[in-house]
Amino acid sequence: MPLDKSDFYYPDDRSDAYTVIEINMMEGRKVETKKALIMALFTNIESSLGLSPVDIEITIKEQPPHCWGFRGMTGDDVKDLTYKVNV
């Protein structure tokens, strides 16, 4: 969500490219998996967009499956996901 520069507060040692990324996901991934995602984002954003990792802040927010709703049901009732959550 873009903010007007006057409404966006960030540390003095960051540039105007400072970017905050929030990822919402169903809980169940291993710590190593989440850390690998964060590191891949730092690497890929820097190589693709030229943003320095010091200007990127990443937060992963997890909720239990029963707090998710999609396709008319809650996440803990879904039995046909084509991907694994516990990785």
UniProtKB/TrEMBL annotation:
Pfam families: Tautomerase_2. Signal peptide: none annotated. Transmembrane segments: none annotated. SUPFAM superfamilies: Tautomerase/MIF (SSF55331). It comes from the Bacteria. PANTHER family: TAUTOMERASE YOLI-RELATED. This is Transglutaminase-like protein. It comes from Vibrio caribbeanicus ATCC BAA-2122.
